[in-house]
Structures are given as structure tokens and as C-alpha cells.
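Predicting holo structure, FE3-S4 cluster bound.
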Amino acid sequence: MEQVLDIAYAEKQRREQSIQMVHKILEERYDHQPLAYVHSFGCQQNVSDGEKIMGLLAQMGYGFTQSQDEADLILYNTCAVRENAETRVFGNVGALKKLKKEKPGLLLCLCGCMMQQKQVVEKIQTSYPFVDIIFGTHALHTLPQLLHTKLTTSQRHVISVEEQENQIVEGLPTRREGSIKAWLPIMYGCDNFCTYCIVPYVRGREKSRMPQDILAEARELMAQGYKEITLLGQNVNSYGKGLEPAVNFSKLLRMLNEIEGDFRIRFMTSHPKDCTRELLDTIRDCDKVCNHIHLPVQSGSNRILREMNRHYTKEDYLALIDYARKNIPDVAFSSDIIVGFPGETREDFLETLELIRQVGYERLYTFIYSPRTGTKAATMADPVPAAEKSAWMQELLELQGELGQESFEKMVGRSWRVLVEGEGKTEGTLTGRTESNVIVDFKAPKSLIGQFATVKVTKAMKWAVLGELIEK
Ligand code: SAH
Ligand code: SF4
Ligand code: F3S
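Done. C-alpha cells:
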């Protein structure tokens, strides 16, 4: 343990030194405050990493811009989960060639999940040689050292993509985008190896943060006025594995719920195989923990679930839903669904539709299966043509459109507590979310943004509801 702390301390020293040195170099190099354009693709974990990257860049002296043309440094924090995520990144990087030509001093950085794949890094080196810095998910905290190397040597590419299974790096600065809702990572990596998924390969093994570090960060967020925190992990239900003293996700939620203040706690993602009755009871007991559970089922066919290595059956899943519905008032569910997993038949797909009908999700995130190099599913026979998969997807979306609206209809006539997040799409309206994560649009003064309000729902739309502010 002591040795680990020594390494962490030395690492921190190195980082701080590099931050100071880069700061000085930038002051000499630019006659203005250098600006960074940072974009994170992919999931909330990536967005949260992006906030740390921005925290580090800010410490080195960078300001931020939303315009690539204005930027002195452009950084893409990439996602590898599906092919179209990767294609989008390559498209964006290709377009930077021109910008780099016009402005040779522009620094281009690529990081995140795609960079943990060998074939991607090779492609960048050969096809996009104008990229300056490439680093993977394990090297985020070394960005100051990498930038320092780039600024002080003639190295064309500075690359750091080795997989390192070291400890979690605490104490990195965070520059959060919003001031109402905050992401709070509680663990990193994934051990589950669902057969379609690249995440365990690009994020490494599961590691949990110490509860005291999470609690301290949550308290700080409350002090800063945040009204909602979302705890992040690929499988938050297995939080605490390997930590001493023993702690699990339910215990963590109970500790967070004790923090003083009027705020909400959300979490994602919950893996059904580790979703326990204890957790559902905890959600019921803790007033700050939202009664909304993102519980991705992926498929309604037991055969496909087995092929996906998900470790639960449709029956196990429905039993959890049933228990939650009986115990947690107004509980709502959302899910991820994969359409067209290798070998999935029309019958399997119809079982997914049936399950969706049975559960009645508030929202679905739907994906057509995308083969990922290195995963088991990528080697399985996949005979269903893409056009057929798209037609299935269309059917699924239509069904969910109807079911979503039906579940919203049930809200009409009742009053709900809403966290007001900003202005709505139409003039004079605000938008917020209920505890169950439903979007509510209603007329109210802008001064309510960032506050809780009580809203009576008057009308159900397809993807949201409309309401009227109830004066308190
Ligand atoms: N850890 C989370 C999911 C992270 S990835 C969980 O286990 O639920 C987010 C979603 O992307 C997954 O739930 C899955 O539905 C989808 N996904 C992952 N790999 C995919 C692939 N190869 N093709 C299509 N969708 C995929
Ligand atoms: Fe991917 Fe499965 Fe891990 Fe989720 S639990 S990140 S789907 S391997
Ligand atoms: Fe994508 Fe990496 Fe998240 S692959 S979904 S950004 S963990």
C-alpha cells in the first residue's frame, strides 16, 4: 500500500512540474491566451474524462472555445463502441488536415477508447500523420507530460497507449460544463466481456474509487450548488469489488443519501445480473436516490442473452422489474437494446418486442449490432442482411413511440417535482426532468432555472410531457 502511495505521489509531482513547465512555454509561445477545443464522443464516462482533460488544460493556461477555427489545440476524446462512432471520428480528423496546413502551430490530440486499439493507432500514423499527440484511456493523467514532450522535442507523434493496470488517479482537476447536473465517476473499466462489446478491451479491468473520495467529491459538488449527481460506471452494481473495508453499491448510495442538501442522485449503468433486491430496497429507502433505473436488457431472447454472455434470463429480468414495481413508488425504467446480434432470428427479435411491451420503458436507447474487432461476437456467423435489421429497428422504434406515450399519458393530471434545467424549445417555456427522468416543458420565469419546481402534467407527447407550473 505504502509503495502504491509513493508511486501516486511521484506521479503527481511529475504532473505538477509538467503543468508549470507547459504553462511557461505557452506564455512565451503565444501573444494571447491559447484556446482549446475539446470534444468527447461516446458515453458519459467519456464526457467525464473530457472534464478532467479540460481541468488539466485549464491548469496549463488554456482557455476554451467552441470553434475549431479559433483553437490553438484541438482534442477529440474518442469512442469505439460501434463502427459509426469510429467513422465519425475519422471523418472529423480528416477535415482537420486543411486547418493544420493553414495553421501549422495548431496542436491536434486524439485520445480515449479508440486509441486503445492497435489497428486504430496504426491507421492514424499512416493516414493522418498530422496528428500530434495520441493517448489512450490509461494515460489521461499524463497529458501535461505528453504536451511538454511535444512542445520541447522534435518528435512528430507523441504516443502513449500502453494498457496499464495501475491504481485510480485521484485529485485530477475537473472543469465541468454545467452548473446544475454533475457526472461523478465511482468506478472505471469493466470485467463483464459481453461478447459484442469492446469496452473491457479499451477500458481495462474494473476498479472502484474509495468511498471517502466519492463522498468528498459529492460534498464539494453540493457546496458548489449542484442539484443532481449521476454516479458513473459500466456496471455500478458491482461497485466495491476488491475494496477494503468491504463496501457495495447499496452502502455507497446510503452514505451519499446522508449528505445534507436538496439534491438528486442518479446512477448508470446498472447491469441486471448484479441488480439485487438489496439495491432496489435502497432505492426505495433513500429519498435522494431517483426512482429511475437504467437497466439495459439488450435482448428479450434467452438464447441471445446467453450468446451475449449477459448472465441473466428474461425471467430473471422480469422478476427484478416486478419486485421494483411493487416496492418503489412510480419507478421508471429505461434500457439499451441491440437489434441484429449475430444469429438473431425474427423469433428472437419478436421476443424482444414482447419484453418491451411487458416492461413499458420510459425510454429506449437502440442500436443495430456493430461488429468490433477482437470481440467474440465478431467471429460469429451473422447471416441477417443489414436491410432486414434496419426494418426490425424501425418496428422497434414505432412500438416504443407508442409505449412511451402511453406511459406518459399516465402522468397527466398529477403534479411532479421537476429539476429545471434550462429554456425550452418554444419561447417562454422552461424544460426540466422528473425524478423518473421524463422531460417536462412548461411556462415559467427563467429565474427558476437550476431550481426544483412543482409542475402539473397536462399533456403527453411522444418523447416528453407538457405541464403547468404550480405556484407554491
Ligand atoms: N456498461 C453498459 C453499456 C455500455 S455500452 C451496460 O452493460 O449496459 C452502451 C450500449 O451500447 C450497450 O448497452 C449496448 O446496448 C450498446 N453496444 C455495445 N456494444 C455494441 C455493439 N458492438 N453493437 C451495437 N451496440 C453495442
Ligand atoms: Fe460492455 Fe457488457 Fe461491460 Fe457493459 S457490461 S461495458 S455491455 S462488456
Ligand atoms: Fe464509447 Fe468508451 Fe464509452 S467505447 S461508450 S466512450 S467507454
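The first helix runs from residue 2 to 29.
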